[in-house]
Amino acid sequence: MPDPEETPTTGSELPVEAKDADELGAAFWETHAARLHGFALLLTIGDRARAAAATVAAMNAGAGRAAKLRHPERAAGWLRQEVITELRRSWPSPRLTPAERREALRPMRVSEPLVAALESMTVERRAALVAGVIEGLDLPDVATILDTDLVRAGRAVEAARREYLASAARVAAPAQGASPGRLAQHINEVTTRTIGSVPAENSA
User: Fold this and answer.
1) Nearest CA among 82, 71, 162, 91 for reference residue 121
2) Exposed e or buried b for every residue in 171-181, given b needs 16+ CB within 10 A?
3) Which residue from 35, 89, 102, 178 has the highest number of Cβ atoms inside 10 Å of its Cβ?
């Protein structure tokens, strides 16, 4: 996972054109934009253009609805669902090189095992990993993001966690030079510290 001392979805360098200028809209952006951009960057595995475009579209839609929400600060789930919808609408950028991905994800201290795991997953599985495991959002939020029920959302999060651990073990084994049991324990310890260090964000 990303460095345990880092919050992996704080985002960086998000273009903020078309921000709503009113006070509520501005507060909505301040509350959600940076973490949402980080979520989009991880979903696109460092595709800055697509991540920024999807984040801006989702945030503008959210800011427009903020006045109608009973608790506009609790919108993480449907904002992330909107990011996924926007990504499905957009054409993929030309294939990024590993160096370009590393540079885009560098501010979040994203590890090679996490990149490898994300590359092996569908967008939905990535969303389950990032939202449910890395960010630690509640299961109802993950269900909203994946547009499914609580049971399927729980299964998706656990499957994403297992897929990450398996991928991390494959990537880390040569470098660690440790036995499979010790390596698995090490990865689980790192994962636990990472999850515990990331503050959960509430959702509508």
Assistant:
1) 162
2) bbeeeeeeeee
3) 35
